[in-house]
Write a structure and sequence with these properties.
Layout lengths: L64 E7 L6 H14 L3 E6 L14 H11 L6 E3 L2 H5 L5 H11 L4 E7 H4 L8 H7 L1 E5 L17 E4 L8 H9 L10 H10 L4
Parallel strand pairs: 1-2, 1-4, 2-3, 4-5, 5-6
Length: 255
Amino acid sequence: MVFLQLPLPPTLGPVSAVQVLDDPGIPAPPGGVGTLSSSPRSAGAGRGKTRPCPARGPRHTGRVKIGFLGGSFDPVHFGHLVAARTACEHCGLDRVVLVPAARAPLKARAAAASPADRLAMLRAAVADDPRFEVSDHELRRGGVSFTIDTARHFRAQFPRARLFWIIGADQLARLPRWKDIAALAQLVEIAVVGRPGFALRRPAGLPGLRLHRCPGHELDLSSTALRARARRGLPLDWLTPHKTVVYIRRKRLYR
């Protein structure tokens, strides 16, 4: 495991600087997207420096601010990406890392697509936005993907950074059910993005929770609905990025 050398600059500079997000011990396979690799394929790699999202919320303190958005991403859709961008802009994040889960703890069913396909779809979706990164940490670890375990991993990677865990308003009331939520509240700040039909109310009984409400564009999209459309042969255009649509068609996923 590789650790950042501190002190950290206000931004992480070139995209290649975040290769430490995942364990680099195993060389990346030659198969490209669709295979699990040990180093994340950075969105916009090789295109120079990334820029932090323009801050509309808390002022940038000079410490690196990294957001994380977890989920099954089965498949990823614009609801996920708009939520990530909303949190990025509201909290003034330097970058957002998307973390596909091996198995989501509060979901009864396993993901329909394979880990490799979900990873490839996600990388395709963010390939043109240099502010987004994809980490395969939870997929490589396997088992149930508890947020507290992932937060501890990235806290060890970035001991002086401000870490923000991005959730939708639908997850806000579920926070008391999350594993070791009190410990998680000490490791990360919670950025809550609005979703249609859900209020941005602070859950009771969680002292020490650092909560950032991030109102913005609320898209009523779900991966369940996209899978249903795919099974019926309906187009997914305008619901998920075009490169992801092409991947789903080529692999004939969710049929």
